[in-house]
Structure formats: C-alpha cells, structure tokens
Design goal:
By secondary structure, this protein is of the alpha/beta class. It has helices at 3-8, 29-35, 40-45, 47-61, 100-105, 111-114, 116-128, 142-151, 159-167, 169-193, 210-228, 245-249, 264-271, 289-303, 323-337, and strands spanning 66-67, 83-86, 90-93, 135-140, 197-202, 234-238, 255-257, 276-280, 309-313. The chain has 15 helices and nine strands.
Length: 339
C-alpha cells in the first residue's frame, strides 16, 4: 500500500510519506545532462525526456511519489498563447490577454488534441515506476494561469490582472470560465491516463485579499473542483496565502498543501482536513545538514505523528540546492517518523 495514498485518506503509514515540489529540476546534474540544449518548451512536451526526468528524480531521492515532470504553462499554448522561455527572464507570452477580443479568441480544444503528449509521458512513467509508488499529476489553478496570460510574464504588483478584475469583471469572468474548462479537461485527461492524485498549483494567489479571492476566484475554482474531484485525491497549493486557507479549502479540494509561512498544525486542526501537506522552508535545504534536520524535525513535531501528514516543502526546490541535502532530508523524514 502506498504511504502517500494512505496519508491522502488520513490513514496511518509505517512512516511519514515525503515528496518534494520541483523534485526534478535544475539542482540535479542528471537533469542538465538530460536536457542539454533542448529548449524548455520542447523539453516539457517531449514524452521520452519528461518521463525520464520524472523517473530520475524519484529514483535518486527515494521519495514516496513521483510527480509528472511538466510546467504549468504549456497547456495554454493550444488555447492560442505564444509561449517562450527566455534565459534570465523565465516564461514569457508574446500575446498577453488584455481585452475582451483577446479572451474571445482563446480556444479550448479537447485535452487529447492540445496536450496529447502528457498521456504518453504518464504512460512511459507508469511503465517504469515501481508498482507500489503513485504518480501525481498537476495543473495550474485558473487564477495563476489567468495571471500569467494577462501579465505576459512574472509580476510584482499584478497591475494588468487587477485592472481587468476590477475594471472589466465580465471579461475577467469570461477568461476564468475558459480556463476552468481547459484545466478540467487537462486534469481529467491525466486521471484517465493513470495518475493517482492531482495537485493544483495556485502559485500567485497570495497577491489577493480574501475578499477579492472570494469574489473573483473562489466561484470559478469551486466549479473546477466539482468537475475533477471524486476519482483521485485533489491537493490545492498556494504560496503567501495563509490568509486565504479557509476560502481555498472551501472550494472543495480533498486537502491543502501549505507554504512554509502557514502554521501547519493550527491550520490542519482549524479546517478539519483529513490530511495536510507541507511545509518546510525550501531555503533550509541550502544550509548545512544540522539546519536541514532541525527544520524537518520542527515540521514533524508540529504534525505530531498524526496520520494524514505528507511531508513536503512550502515551495519548490531552488537551483542552488545541494542534491545530497535533499537526499538527506528524505532519509531523515523516513527514519525519524518511522512507527
């Protein structure tokens, strides 16, 4: 029985399961050897490469679940957005969505037509993943995808997003409606292809007040959750969002993954969730092993050995992280929590 899936149901396991956001990535030499000069968009959408990156990370780290190696944004390309990954900048859209006409032009093709590569990636991973280990699928949540599409790149103040939300709420809602349909189709396609759980990433949602989340985001996210819940566990994750956890859990995921600033035990108890995921500060992995152990123990102590805790970071592993520290963390969590 999978430790991870047992924890998703709030059941006890022999030790606390652990997997890590961005467990496959630029901090690993194997990742760089595999990627080489392959452009990022091609890397994410080439099943042979994406499957190998997924499997390498699980094998090297010994984590209790693999997560499909992909990115949040390529699913927007079949909708009509022009995506590029620029060195030193990150993802950039050449045609940001900032008008009613631009929203109207967005297509919502069936997931198997626009993102068929993800099914092949999942199939390749499942063929080689040890049978007792689950595979997690994922997607960006509608607000974060809308923010990328509108801003066109990373943002500090979300000017264009909030200008549309506040000044043209009908255009904003039309965009969110299309994204709910696109994300639902993409997630359902991953579930049909064999993933055992799904995590929704709302990486930018912390920029909102709770009132704005409840008005402009919550209803759309709730519609999405109704479409995708019930077949596999659905985890909802955001950052900088400690003030939003009540509203976010209220949209209907099975449970939340918490960022490192959010009190784990207090939030778990307050929301009455069957499980919780989190929430060590990923920067602690860039320090020495004593620091890694201290931070990991703090999270484990806060969870108190309660069934349903999935150990993870409060955000993703950064490129500067020593691989040996990540391996040490996984071993430490397993050994310290073993029942």
């Amino acid at each position: 029985m999978s430790r991870f899936l047992s924890a998703c149901r709030g059941e006890a396991a022999d030790c606390t399961p652990v997997w890590l956001n961005r467990q496959a990535g630029r901090y690993m030499p194997e990742y760089h050897a595999l990627k080489g000069d392959t452009p990022s968009l091609e890397f994410f959408t080439t099943p042979e490469l994406a499957a190998r990156a997924t499997l390498d990370a699980q094998r090297i780290l010994g984590v209790d679940a693999a997560i499909v190696f992909a990115d949040l944004l390529p699913m927007l390309v079949p909708m009509g957005l022009e995506l590029d990954y620029r060195a030193g900048v990150g993802p950039v859209f050449g045609n940001p969505v900032r008008s009613a006409a631009a929203v109207e032009r967005l297509a919502v093709p069936p997931a198997e037509e626009g993102t068929g590569y993800i099914a092949e990636t999942i199939g390749r991973v499942l063929a080689d993943l040890p049978g007792d280990l689950p595979l997690i699928g994922f997607a960006g949540a509608p607000f974060t995808l809308a923010s990328y599409a509108i801003e066109g790149r990373g943002s500090r103040n979300y000017l264009h997003v909030k200008r549309m939300m506040y000044g043209a709420p009908e255009v904003w809602q039309a965009l969110m409606d299309k994204l709910v349909d696109a994300v639902a189709g993409y997630v359902e396609f991953q579930i049909d292809s064999g993933v055992h759980a799904v995590q929704l990433f709302d990486s930018w949602v912390g920029c909102l007040s709770r009132a704005d989340y409840d008005r402009y985001v919550g209803p759309s996210t709730r519609r999405l959750m109704k479409r995708i819940r019930g077949r596999v566990p659905v985890i909802y994750f955001g950052t900088g969002n400690g003030h939003l956890v009540v509203s976010m859990f209220g949209t209907g995921p099975d449970f939340l993954a918490l960022d490192w600033r959010t009190p784990l035990a207090e939030t778990w108890q307050r929301l009455g969730m069957p499980a919780v995921q989190g929430n060590m500060d990923p920067m602690a992995l860039c320090a020495d092993r004593a620091t890694v152990a201290a931070h990991a123990r703090r999270v484990l102590d806060e969870a108190g050995g309660r069934p349903g805790h999935i150990f993870n970071l409060g955000h993703g592993i950064v490129p500067e992280t020593p691989v040996d520290n990540v391996k040490y963390l996984v071993d430490f969590v397993h050994e310290t929590s073993r029942r």
